[in-house]
Design a protein that fits this description.
- The structure holds 2 protein chains of 2 kinds.
- Chain A contains 4 helices and 5 strands.
- By secondary structure, chain A is of the alpha+beta class.
- Chain A has a 3-stranded antiparallel beta sheet with strand order 2-3-4, covered by helices on one side.
- In chain A, α1 packs across α2.
- By secondary structure, chain B is an all-beta fold.
- Chain B has a domain of 25 residues.
- In chain B, 0% of the residues lie in helices and 39% in strands.
- In chain B, strands 1-2 form a two-stranded antiparallel sheet.
- The termini of chain B are close together.
- Chains A and B meet through β4 and α3 of A and β3 of B.
Chain lengths: 111, 38
């Protein structure tokens, strides 16, 4: 049984920084030291839409993911939840501040 | 320069029962042990 469904509400982990790239985006988790490559710009928009206030179904709808691709994007979100880039949130929870932007990545990496 | 992810495919079953070789939208990498490597 999938851990995320269209009714799930998820948000970007506060220790995750997102950097858009030509191929999609890079996510870096400052706690787990994991990188996730998002290989699609639309998935980046889905991740940004996952702000803890709307369901995944709403996030997919907002970003224009075609219905035929829903299962594929759900699998991608499931992968990101499993790696703690995204975490479950209660519907209606106020959005939390996320990690600083990409300029901070190199600063913390050097420190 | 940021490295690009290598293709990583998964085989999924379409509603019709057909098996489709589908490229994953996410690829994960750990940077443990890569300190100082840029």
């Amino acid at each position: 049984m999938p851990s995320v469904t269209l009714d799930s509400v998820v948000a970007v982990h506060p220790r995750v920084s997102i950097r858009p790239e030509p191929f999609g985006a890079l996510l870096y988790h400052f706690s787990t030291r994991q990188l996730s490559f998002l290989k699609d710009r639309m998935l980046l928009e889905v991740v940004r839409a996952c702000d803890g206030t709307r369901t995944l179904g709403e996030a997919l709808g907002t970003t224009g993911v075609p219905a035929a691709q829903t299962a594929r994007y759900l699998r991608a979100v499931e992968t990101l939840v499993a790696s703690r880039m995204l975490e479950s949130a209660s519907a209606g929870t106020a959005p939390r501040r996320t990690a600083p932007d990409s300029a901070t990545i190199s600063t913390e990496a050097v420190a | 320069m940021t490295p690009s992810p290598a293709p990583q495919n998964t085989v999924v079953e379409a509603p019709s029962g057909e098996l489709i070789d589908e490229e994953s939208l996410v690829e994960e990498v750990s940077i443990d042990g890569m300190c100082g490597v840029y």
